[in-house]
Write a structure and sequence with these properties.
mainly alpha; 6 strands
């Protein structure tokens, strides 16, 4: 059967290692649905153009339907001697329906066939991952609405900076994920052209209708250049690029979850469902799911750089190197799917420790900027001067072991005599977040509105 396609030219079969290095059926069997879908569209077009008979088309349809059933129920045996999914399916078809099956490959090559199947697969993967990103955004928006006014420390350099709200922090990820969806949608738009009909590389001598197959497979149009059609893997690379940026975002959030659950922070607690224990230390609650989400980003970046390296030296048009395009894409898509599901679960279940976050948010002179702003607003100091004066007050507070809110007015007045009792109104963390009402700022009202807007958009 391995001579099915090119036996005419060959006297001997392949070395066993040739088959081992050459066969892709071990992984490209995942393309079976797309391969059958593509063959159905191709056969329909061949018949419509009078290139094969209506009887042959009907036999092909029936045969492919049987094959789909056999694969779905697990009774189809994939044969490595038949190299890949395309040849496996075609060989079965010929074994089942004979002569008609031998006509299916008219005006087609595995080069345009695999390019078509793979685009269809990536398109489906984009649609399904997009739905998952949206679910994660909804989970984040829901929790953000709930915690629009929950105050936590905001960090720069991982040092206490200014108070923010937990809702605001969560919505930052919603913004990132929304751009990730945009990138996936963009990749989808560009990939949605149909390579079928490019044949091996130069087009075909048969009077095919490429627009017909493109439409039947849900593509916007056929690809414009036959050489490009069979050698382009931009669509896979763009998919992996978008997934890499998405994975980077998920990894940053996973890292924060890991930090937040650690004992010195204790900002959140994960549910039992998303925590593991230790085989030796009975007290442990480890954030393994977050750690794995962080690690899988590395795997996804590896898929992108791996495929870029495979593609970068290939002369036009098809080369067998391109068979190595599928595993990284499948692996990255699987990893992204798992990460998204796990992150969504963690977000829905996580239990913020509101009191703990509050108390940490008020520590480390987190409202020093508010004091400087007060000196500018109420006393008319230039900001640079106010910054300097505040620095001196902070250092007085530090040497006394007091937070700014607890520092006596007399101490502040020694540094700047015009400071009045009114200063205490700006030094609480509530006043600090409430005062940041600028567009995109952390004021609880802003955050509640932004969360509600996202909930509505994502409903
Ligand atoms: N299994 C091959 C792949 O995944 C299909 C295309 C083979 N084409 C060829 N000319 N050998 O790339």
């Amino acid at each position: 059967p391995s001579r099915l396609q090119w036996g005419g030219r060959f006297a001997a079969g392949p070395a066993s290692v040739m088959q081992a290095i050459n066969a892709s059926i071990g992984f490209d069997q995942r393309l079976w649905r797309e391969d059958i879908e593509g063959s159905l569209a191709h056969a329909g077009m061949l018949a419509a153009m009078g290139i094969i008979s209506a009887e042959d088309e009907a036999a092909i349809r029936a045969g492919l339907a049987e094959i789909a059933e056999a694969i779905a129920e697990g009774s189809f045996t994939f044969d490595p001697a038949l190299e890949d999914i395309h040849t496996n399916i075609e060989a079965w078809l010929v074994a089942r329906i004979g002569e008609a099956g031998r006509r299916l490959h008219t005006a087609r090559s595995r080069n345009d066939q695999v390019a078509t199947d793979f685009r269809l697969w990536v398109r489906n993967a984009i649609d399904s991952l997009d739905g998952q990103v949206r679910e994660l955004m909804r989970a984040l928006a829901d929790r953000a609405a709930e915690h629009a006014a929950t105050i936590m420390p905001g960090f720069t350099h991982l040092q206490t900076a200014q108070p923010v709200t937990l809702g605001h922090h969560l919505l930052a990820y919603v913004e990132m994920l929304s751009r990730d969806r945009g990138r996936l949608a963009d990749a989808r738009r560009r990939l949605n052209e149909c390579p079928l009909g490019a044949a091996a590389l130069a087009g075909t001598t048969f009077p095919i209708d490429r627009s017909m197959t493109a439409a039947a497979l849900g593509f916007d149009r056929p690809t414009a250049n036959s050489l490009d059609s069979v050698s382009d893997r931009d669509f896979a690379l763009e998919f992996l690029s978008a997934l890499s940026i998405l994975a980077m975002h998920l990894s940053r959030f996973a890292e924060e979850i890991i930090i937040w659950t650690s004992a010195p922070y204790r900002f959140i607690r994960l549910s039992d469902a998303y925590t593991t224990g230790s085989s030796i230390m009975p007290q442990k609650r480890n954030p393994d799911a977050a750690e794995l989400a962080r690690a899988k980003a590395g795997r996804i970046f590896g898929a992108l750089t791996g495929l870029l390296a495979v593609m970068k030296g290939l002369p036009l048009a098809y080369a067998k190197d391109m068979q190595e395009d599928k595993e990284p894409v499948f692996d990255a898509a699987d990893a992204a799917e798992l990460c998204l599901a796990a992150m969504t679960g963690m977000v829905r279940d996580m239990m913020p420790d509101v009191l703990r976050m509050r108390s940490v948010a008020g520590a480390d002179f987190s409202t020093a900027t508010d004091l400087a702003d007060y000196l500018v607003r109420d006393l008319g100091l230039p900001f640079r001067t106010a910054h300097h004066v505040t620095g001196r007050i902070v250092s007085e507070a530090e040497s006394r072991g007091l937070e700014l809110v607890a520092l006596p007015l007399s101490v502040m007045q020694e540094v700047e005599p015009r400071i009045t009792e009114a200063v205490y109104d700006v030094l609480t963390i509530e006043a600090s977040v409430a005062a940041r009402r600028t567009l995109g700022g952390t004021a609880p009202d802003n955050v509640a509105r932004a969360a509600a807007r996202w909930q509505e958009t994502l409903a």
